[in-house]
Amino acid sequence: xxxxxxxxxxxxxxxxxxxxxxxxxxxxxxxxxxxxxxxxxxxxxxxxxxxxxxxxxxxxxxxxxxxxxxxxxxxxxxxxxxxxxxxxxxxxxxxxxxxxxxxxxxxxxxxxxxxxxxxxxxxxxxxxxxxxxxxxxxxxxxxxxxxxxxxxxxxxxxxxxxxxxxxxxxxxxxxxxxxxxxxxxxxxxxxxxxxxxxxxxxxxxxxxxxxxxxxxxxxxxxxxxxxxxxxxxxxxxxxxxxxxxxxxxxxxxxxxxxxxxxxxxxxxxxxxxxxxxxxxxxxxxxxxxxxxxxxxxxxxxxxxxxxxxxxxxxxxxxxxxxxxxxxxxxxxxxxxxxxxxxxxxxxxxxxxxxxxxxxxxxxxxxxxxxxxxxxxxxxxxxxxxxxxxxxxxxxxxxxxxxxxxxxxxxxxxxxxxxxxxxxxxxxxxxxxxxxxxxxxxxxxxxxxxxxxxxxxxxxxxxxxxxxxxxxxxxxxxxxxxxxxxxxxxxxxxxxxxxxxxxxxxxxxxxxxxxxxxxxxxxxxxxxxxxxxxxxxxxxxxxxxxxxxxxxxxxxxxxxxxxxxxxxxxxxxxxxxxxxxxxxxxxxxxxxxxxxxxxxxxxxxxxxxxxxxxxxxxxxxxxxxxxxxxxxxxxxxxxxxxxxxxxxxxxxxxxxxxxxxxxxxxxxxxxxxxxxxxxxxxxxxxxxxxxxxxxxxxxxx
Length: 700
Prior knowledge:
Elements: E1 9-12, H1 38-54, H2 63-78, H3 86-92, H4 99-105, H5 109-131, E2 144-146, H6 158-178, H7 183-201, H8 206-221, E3 226-228, H9 230-240, E4 249-254, E5 257-263, H10 268-272, E6 280-286, E7 293-294, H11 300-307, E8 314-320, E9 331-336, H12 342-345, E10 348-356, E11 359-367, H13 375-379, H14 388-401, E12 406-410, H15 419-426, E13 434-440, E14 445-449, E15 463-467, H16 474-484, E16 489-492, E17 500-506, H17 508-511, E18 521-530, E19 546-547, H18 583-598, H19 601-617, E20 621-623, H20 626-650, H21 670-690
Parallel strand pairs: 11-12, 12-15, 15-16, 16-19
Antiparallel strand pairs: 1-4, 2-20, 3-18, 4-5, 5-6, 6-7, 6-8, 8-9, 10-11, 13-14, 13-18, 17-18
């Protein structure tokens, strides 16, 4: 089981998502005796009933499931194997085949007993870490620190953990030293950090432990089933109301760091454009002149609380950029808090001019950040309600008035949204017919067709749909329909592979609390999506017709990397009328794209960046020698500068003296440019096909 299976995700200023690590309460500084509440046993019984009755797979809660839940619970507690001893894990084995009975009908005490052992080990490690700050480390020695231990054996003795943690503390100090902190400054900062860890592990309450275990239980079924405690259910409700302000970025806890997962369309971070997925937040400051607060090791909730704030106020984030080597320089980004604005989420258009052989081809681009629909306005009878389909239809009209030769629909980073919008948007490009099939847990198959079958196709010209690994759910439904109907070509990277349907159950409706905190909520997977061909989008996603390179690692992100993901399968093909097969056209497009790429400096730049990012991701250790780390960092900066200047030289642009001179807007959108080139190829092919054939005439 991989370590990223246990990450907790929520959105700073937007949404709360799946929980998989302990939420640490803030109401008390004193460790409470951890024991189950009677409410928890009722919740466990009810969730077990829901799982067996309503989950798509009708999973039996039995010994086999119990064993898998045990593995995931241990993973949730100590996924990087930095705290527990082999003997602790061996003791947990006593309960391996009892968890199904425990959650269904027996006292939950063993769950809390296992957590208490983990809690004790965390205290031991942090107390040891504090002792390591008494003497300044020697950075002249040649040794490495293994920061990824997720696949290693459990430590046998405390002395083994001592050695692991000696190196961990040394690495923490070295990282700060490389950031030009003195030994005294590093001592003070790390003492505060480790004491903060200690304080928080003692603030865990009974609901936190139960939520952690129930998510281990739910995630064993599939990645999208989850449980939220009463406290986090309320947080979810508040955040879904969008009645607060933030930066608009989804975050997750990755070991000691809060890491950016995605940037939310329409939020301040998306509008600013500097914050990127996989950036790690190391500090947060309030206002333009506020002091930077170190947040390494903070729990996710507390970092989110710092990032949130009143509208039109500034929050500064200190980050380690994605893909940076350990010890790399940190950057500071200032963002003005605001609500996620629906108008900023809306589809936008542009025109790219492609010069070829004395002619300029005009390619329209429509960026679709999500599949949105203002249901409140619609229910109030407002005919001008906002929706993806209405906006795209309007933009198509505007683009055609400008005389475009082809169209690129950009779905990169589009995580989905309303299913009705996915089917309606598909209807703008295909004649009436089915768009997607759904199968529920009872095996019943339903079909969703173009919701406006009598309307004319809004655009029938050359079409390329640009996708990446973060194109998911509704995006995949749309892309699959375009591909299956042979209406256009899909360009980019294999999509996410999220082809399942979830239902949310408020447990208070079933257990009816009489006062008290309530029972929380369960999200359960109840169905799957299928293409009109009968193939699932689950697990495999949509494979592009023309593959382009990407900085997004498919081994790190996507449904297929989750070991509990539901499998790909097929159902019967539904009746639909596709266009002429595009096999030969796709071969031609691929060949043309590859030929252009050979002489494209921007494409070479992307390939080089992708290869280096892959090398960095493959590493599990880092040197603890100061000179080696410093040299490594300087070499990386030199490579990045040389790569950028090589690109600029090939394009007859002025070279840079330093990477600090590089502006974000100077970087090319290589994938969009490639997609526009492919759309131009389609336009050229269509123009050739439209010309009347010429027959040689033989004169007498």
